[in-house]
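>> received
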Amino acid sequence: MAPVAVLIISLILILVACSLFTNAVEWLGRRLKVNQAVVGSVFAAVGTAMPETAIPIIAILVYGDAQAVDVGLGAVAGAPFMLATLAFFVTGAAVVVCRLAGRRTLAMNAEPRLAARDLAWFLGLYGAAVAVSLVHDLVWLRYSVAAGLVVAYIIYVYRTFGGRAEPGHEAEPLEDLTFARYLRRDSRKRTPLGPPGLVLILVQLATALAAIIFGAHRFVAAAEIVAANLGIAPLLLSIIITPVATELPEKFNSILWIARRKDTLALGNITGAMVFQTCVPVAFAIAFTPWRLSGVTLVSALLALGAGLWSLVWIKATGRVNPFVLMAAGLAYVAFFVYVIAA
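>> returned
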């Protein structure tokens, strides 16, 4: 029962930490006077991507044996797959649940231009990475693509910072910084506080990130024990169970922002993480492993591209983001699960 207890405690820790994180990252964006795209697609996406980024790097660099490489490749391929399928499903489902609870409408106010831009970057970059895995013996091409992915992410971040802000959100009131609220003499007071200092914002952000990373790794460790007891293979563990656990921060953040009708932040957290995961961890895997995608890893990559394309085509065709379309992306996850069982 110990691993199960760790799973539950870690889940609660991640949820609490995500609440602190979303609160702090919004204030960071406000203090730095950056737009919603930067807050969601860069600050939040990179911050919450830390747990799943660390796993393949540690597995490949520290251990380096064949099994560790399999775990690393599975984690690298699993992250974009989970984001494009399960995370989109959870986000769409959160909209529907909040509508049923009377907390919001079904109409999403996410900025379609930003969502389409992130998805286009993801499809182009991940498509190139998957393609080069089919000709992995061309070492010069692998290293060229790896370097290109890193450069592409730098360009993506630069263009995100330079993008125009979404109208109206700069003046949108924010909840008091959690640390500021509990540091004042009487934390039970409901009167609003003034803007918090940058140092306190960064302290809360760092605390939240540390708790997210610790909770995610504890969750993964406990999940690995449970999976081993059930006889699940390491590769399947790394491509199914590990990414589900490590993508929890993105999912929880998006649910929290959906409940507050901050859909641009909710969706940007996921699509921005998709771009980051495609560039940094994938570039690392291409450079430091044989980067041979086959079997379940190749299927997961193709399904991720298919789910991303499905969402992009809808947004381009209609000019809006639809929660049911996001939920439909989850069918790719079901298809993958069926493939794994059948195989």
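>> The chain has one domain: 2-342.
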